[in-house]
Design a protein that fits this description.
This protein has 214 residues and is α/β, with parallel strands linked by helices. The chain folds into two domains: 101 residues, Oxidized Rhodanese, domain 1, CATH 3.40.250; 76 residues, Orthogonal Bundle (434 Repressor (Amino-terminal Domain)), CATH 1.10.260.40. The protein is 46% helix and 10% strand. The protein is built from nine helices and seven strands. It has a five-stranded parallel beta sheet with strand order 1-6-5-2-4. Helix 3 links the parallel strand 5 and strand 6. It is globular and about 50 Å long. The protein starts with 5 loop residues before the first strand and ends in a 7-residue tail after the last helix. The relative contact order is 0.14.
């Protein structure tokens, strides 16, 4: 069976959704979903995503989405691997949905202060590791260090967001927690891309003209 996940752009997904032809599934983590999400989307976080018990919905395709499309594609591959037909993911994720001008629901926050920091939707992997895995499963940093062969100092730095997840650490975490091999490094990529957009996005848009517009 092919492991290529079908993709669809935001306009196509919006048309399907408006015609009630699909079920939209958000595979981001709970903390991300609570800050902002597409109205009516179901939440099935990647941290607890189990393709073996994924529901089959007769007459409707399932469209997966995340922040920028990496986690949803990984979830789609997991579904295809278990024999689920018609795995589709939203190209570009929530970022593409919003860029196309489509609405989202946001958490009601207190009035913003001029000095308030921007709200980030893609937490660092260490935060997801701590909140979605270690605490619920009652695994200590010491236990994790011993079980995946990584120093305790590195684990503490990861949980504090002081060290990034590379491919080796992603493989070790994936093996231990039975996730997709690239799950943890993709969380890191989502986080890094969001940080870079906030820091450099405006400058890059101002200084670089797309080739097709030249």
């Amino acid at each position: 069976m092919s492991k290529i996940v079908e993709s669809a752009d935001a306009k196509t997904v919006k048309d399907w959704y408006d015609r009630n032809e699909i079920v939209l599934v958000d595979v981001r983590e709970t903390s991300e979903f609570e800050l902002e999400h597409i109205a009516g989307a179901l939440l099935l976080p990647m941290s607890s995503f189990d393709p073996e018990i994924f529901p089959v919905i007769p007459g409707k395709n399932v469209v997966l989405h995340c922040a920028i499309g990496k986690r949803s594609e990984a979830a789609g591959k997991m579904l295809l691997g278990e024999g689920h037909p018609g795995a589709i993911h939203l190209t570009g994720g929530l970022d593409a949905w919003k860029a196309a001008g489509y609405p989202t629901e946001v958490q009601i926050l207190p009035p913003a202060k001029k000095t308030q920091e921007p709200v980030f939707l893609c937490p660092p992997p260490g935060s997801i590791l701590d909140k979605e895995y270690l605490k619920p499963l009652k695994i200590t940093a010491v236990d994790l260090s011993k079980n995946i062969g990584i120093s305790l100092d590195t684990i503490h730095a990861l949980l504090k967001g002081e060290t990034p997840v590379g491919v080796e650490l992603s493989l070790r975490l994936a093996r231990y927690f039975s996730t997709a091999p690239d799950f943890w490094v993709q969380l890191q990529l989502d986080h890094d891309m969001e940080q870079a957009r906030h820091k450099l996005g405006a400058e890059i848009r101002a200084k670089i003209t797309p080739r097709t517009a030249q």
